[in-house]
Amino acid sequence: MMVDKIAAVVRGCGIPSIKSFDWSVMSLLLPFRPAMTGFVAGAIVLSQLVACGGASKADVADTAAGPTIQSLDEEGYSPPTSFSSDYCSSNDFPAQWEWRESTVRPQVRGAVSGVPLIRHLRDGRLIASYTKLGGHRSAPNNTDGHDASVGPFRRALFTQWKNGDVFEIYPAIYEGEDQQIYIGPNFDSEADYSSKNANVPKNITVRGITVNGVRPVIKLPATGASNATLGQSLIYIDKSEGITIENLEVISNDTGLGRIGKAGIYINGGKNVTLRNLRIHGFENRSANGIFGTSDNSGTMLIEGVELSGNGGGNGPEHNIYINYSKDDSKFTVKMLGSWSHDARYGHLFKSRAQVNILEGNYFQGSRATKPGEMRESYLVDVPDGGVLTARNNIFVKTASGDNTNGASLAYAAEGSIGRFDTTRPWALTVEHNTFVAFTQYFDNQKHQVYPFLLNAIAPVKAENINVNGNLFVGYCRKKSSLYGSPGYFGEGYMMADFNAIDQSFRPRKPQPSKSGLAPGSLGYQHKQSNVRRRTNAIGARD
């Protein structure tokens, strides 16, 4: 049967089954009507998957023309390497590295001790201090924080903040039912409560304070996420506007005790939320996301300088970060800058159904399955509903993530099919000046090849709104194809290189100029989780 032949082609292209192809291949079958012959149907599918063979040594070469650009970066190159250059035939890939150690920017550490202290500032003036972040007990009717026995971030009555307030959290481990944060509507008075006149928080800032290189840690207790956060998370951002959370670590515990419903940080109704300079780690042992956003968010969600690691699981599956589309804002935007997502389990390093996604200067670092049956991340980046995706100056690293995962680094509109695409959202795809590195030829034990893109060829994005240009590819063995949507598609103006052509910070040793028009000054990535300005328009993510 033709379906069997199609399934065979799909498996030969590095996809274990049609089902695990996450709708992209299934969607290709939907246009086929009974009147179509099996030959035509097969030809269409084969045209999408034509580039499934291995690359020869000649394929792994510099395809960019023009003179080499002199790098202006002051960090210098790591020492030259002598890795095998015939890895596609010998399967002799170098061991995965993280970054050149001497150029890693020092990071603050999470507290291992300390006395909890929260300072409440209004218009730059200290008005109250607390030792608890939240709690279940109602506080007296005031907004000036005069009852310090109860933390300011709770669902119980009454409001202890005003719009524009700043809360400084000092280094300590905040662990317990009353050490979790809820930011959402509350009431200023008995009269407001009786009339259901809730005060929606606006422009509240929660800022961790670094002392001697140490910052505060909010940790999942053995009792789990509390009633104050509806059992969902350690930080719960409910209906609000302009909330900023910065310079904290939000972590699970090592015991595996304590239920948490959805994520380290749960966002449900936030408009213009900012998460900055955070570390969200370890929730894979509770099968939970690092960050989760519902469909009630709007505006722009900014994720900047955030490290996400060790999150995910098989319940959903769960991911390092998972943001839903907005049911109210057709241009809801998720913007991720200067962040590092790595070591997810089962799910993806980044997943978003938002209408607009902007990823600039990030590091998406896949991890290797080290024991039978282990599943690390599936996709590095998944934007399953399509829309607007701009991915620029990012580093994508893929390795052998394990059976029942996937070999694609970036997936776009993979769950869409005829009649199921959201045509009310804007559509455009820009993937430029990224560096894609494959430290393996096969992502699973069945020897399915890795590939850079899973791009749904029937998504309603116009050809003039597609720009896949100026990307650098290292370690890929796929036979190249110019056909958009095929596993061998690499875009335009790209460069292929072997591992000796880049240094340990993923910089090309002989940068080549790009014709993509990217201007110097765009945001690149610097480890750990920070941005630097690009100084040239060299192909790839770094100068």
How far apart are the first and last residues' alpha carbons, in Å? Answer: 51 Å
Inertia-based shape:
globular
Query: Tally the helices: what do you get?
Result: 5
Q: Strand content of the residues, in percent?
A: 25-35%
Strand order of the main beta sheet, please? Answer: 3-2-4-7-12-16-19-22-25-28-31-34
Task: Tell me the number of structural domains.
Answer: 2
**What is the CA-atom radius of gyration, in angstroms?**
24 Å
Mean pLDDT: 87
> Sheet bearing the most strands, described?
12 strands, mixed
Q: Which class of secondary structure composition applies to the elements?
A: mainly beta
In total, the number of strands is 38
What fraction, in percent, of the residue positions are helical?
under 10%
**What ranges have pLDDT less than 50 throughout 5 or more consecutive residues?**
1-72
Structure notes:
By secondary structure, the chain is mainly β. It has two domains: 1-102 and 393-410 and 427-543, no CATH class; 109-246 and 248-304 and 313-341 and 348-354. The chain contains five helices and 38 strands. The strands form six sheets. The chain has a twelve-stranded mixed beta sheet, with no helix packed on it. It has an eleven-stranded parallel beta sheet with strand order 5-9-13-17-20-23-26-29-32-35-36, with no helix packed on it. A nine-stranded parallel beta sheet has the order 6-10-14-18-21-24-27-30-33, with no helix packed on it. The longest helix is centred in the N-terminal third of the chain and has 11 residues, at 2-12. The relative contact order is 0.13. The model is unreliable at 1-72 (pLDDT under 50).
